[in-house]
Design brief:
two-stranded antiparallel ribbon, Helix Hairpins
């Protein structure tokens, strides 16, 4: 009976080592890159809002990409309120100060997620093959 259980444990450990661990590490790395990119987007938005406040900009005429690298000149007559993508396709209209408060909260949350992924990555580097899997068989 013990030899059958040991064989099952061995096969399970081999499956985990060959397939699941590498897939998990790859997914963690991709997610960390995505979180880092989101953090950069919020950081850029924060800098832009701070520049608008510092220079007292009330109107803009930016070039907007409408697809396939085709740009048109847009007219933004009032920049005191901006729309911020809050995920899932929803946008909220904020004043500059409200947007800055939201951005600060989102960047802090993203930093916690990145820290969590780092901790999990460090956990993955330990040798998990020494664990007892006999209670799962």
């Amino acid at each position: 009976m013990d030899s059958i259980r040991q064989e099952k444990v061995q096969r399970f450990e081999e499956f985990v080592d060959r397939h699941l661990k590498s897939d998990l590490v790859h997914a963690i790395v991709e997610r960390a890159k995505s979180l880092k990119n989101k953090k950069k987007v919020f950081s850029d938005l924060r800098k832009n809002i701070e520049n608008l406040e510092k220079n007292s900009v009330t109107g803009l005429r930016p070039l907007v990409n409408i697809g396939s690298e085709v740009y048109i000149q847009a007219d933004v007559p009032d920049t005191r309120r901006i729309f911020v993508d809050i995920r899932l396709g929803f946008h909220v209209e904020f004043t500059w100060s409200e947007a800055l408060n939201y951005i600060i909260a989102r960047v802090e949350k993203l930093a916690r997620f990145v820290k969590g992924y780092r901790n999990y990555s460090n956990f993955q580097e330990r040798d998990l093959t020494k664990r007892e899997f006999s209670n799962f068989v």
